Amino acid sequence: MVKAVILFLVVMAAIALIGNAIAPGSFWRRLGKATGMRRCARCGRPMLGKTCDCGNRP
Ligand SMILES: [Zn+2]
């Protein structure tokens, strides 16, 4: 029974990884488009402030 739960989690993680590999950042791009927020040109994530975390952090 526990094995089935672990297998399910592994399969879900694999699907998420494959989806990210095929279309990287598509989730954030879609989210930014839907909310109408300004998006980061670098990573495509919607910016909460004036700058994005990816540009600030070295
Ligand atoms: Zn960014």
Distance between the termini: 45 Å
How much is the average pLDDT? 75
Radius of gyration: 16 Å
- Major beta sheet summary: none
Query: What bound compounds does this protein have?
Result: zinc ion
Q: Write down the oligomeric state.
A: single chain
* Helix/strand order: HHH
Total beta strands: 0
Low-confidence blocks of residues: none
Q: In which range does the helix fraction lie?
A: 55-70%
- Count of alpha/pi helices: 3
Structural class by helix and strand composition: mainly alpha
Which geometry do the CA atoms define?
elongated
What proportion strand? under 5%
List the helices and strands and how they pair.
Elements: H1 2-22, H2 26-35, H3 53-56
The structure holds zinc ion.
